[in-house]
Amino acid sequence: MTLSSFLRLICLAAIWGGSFLFMRIAAPTFGPAYLIEFRVSFAALALLVTALYLKRSLHFRAHARHYFILGLLNTALPFVLFAYAAQTLTVSVLAILNATAAIWGALIAFFWHRTPLSVKSLIGMVLGICGVIILVGWDQTLVSEALIWPVLAGVLAAVSYGVASNYAKNAPQIAAFDNAHGSMWAAVVWLVPLLPFIPMRAVPDSTEISAVIALGVICTGIAYLLYFRLISDVGAASALSVTFLIPLFGIVWGYLVLDEQVGINTLGGMILVLGGTMLVTGFSPATWQTKRAARAR
């Protein structure tokens, strides 16, 4: 991995970790439906401008069914669930729950595609579940039973990502950029029916409006472009390492910007979740280093 690719990886992790910060800032005022509708709309427009610049045609009609499935499972549903959870949960908890997506993806693959689960994968799943229990069960901010629903929403959002990743295995072979572009427009459509039923809570101030714009343009549109560039430069396996950096940045942003406290349970839960994710995905620093050296030859 070159220095430029490494810097892109760090920037991407910082941006995606920041997405939970921006949701935490804007969700209480915008509500989950309007927040995510604005987010995917700004992202779709950013990708449209990029597509026009690159002279890429989307051909939405030809793959409409695929885009709508992907837009629901990989964007609209998990984004709304995380936005709902962001009204209550801290940035660090949101980021760590997001990291369990790979664990759920492996479990879903076992039932859906009959993909065998190795002993390492099973141990990883147990570690991940224990990490979530420690993260939530020992957090003094989550003692109210009413907060079980936000935690469940965060878990279900990660499960939705797991379903989307398994759907993608048998989905039409479409360029990654087109998948992102088409699924964003599909997500815009999916969210429209929710708007009358989940209204905005108040008139947003300039900080909240800026957070929503940053969510759409930077954390979704630009982040996707960085991610695709990473896959192109270093491969999907190395690009996956961003998963393990996002919770760290989520904790840092929450502490620096919102003064969220970082307890021993947060750190312990993060270590177990990320350790479990590494076992499930087969990722390890040693393996990553070997692949990086092989590409350098």
Question: How would you describe the overall organization of this protein?
Answer:
The protein has 297 residues and is an all-alpha fold. The protein has one domain. Helices cover 77% and strands 0% of the residues. It has 12 helices and no strands. α1 packs across α7 (176-191) and α3 (91-98) runs parallel beside α11 (264-281). The chain crosses the membrane at residues 7-27, 33-54, 66-85, 91-112, 119-140, 146-164, 184-203, 209-227, 234-256, 262-288. Residues 9-136, 149-281 form the EamA domain. It is a multi-pass membrane protein.
Given helix and strand content, the structural type is mainly alpha
Write the element-wise H/E pattern from the N-terminal end onward: HHHHHHHHHHHH
Give the low-confidence spans. none
The total tally of domains equals 1
The number of helices is 12
Q: How far apart, in Å, are the first and last alpha carbons?
A: 11 Å
Helix content: over 70%
Note the main sheet.
none
Output the keywords.
transmembrane helix; 297 residues; 77% helix; mainly alpha; EmrE-like; globular
What's the gist of this structure?
InterPro entries: AA-Vitamin_Transporters (IPR050638), EamA_dom (IPR000620), EmrE-like (IPR037185). The chain is mainly alpha-helical.
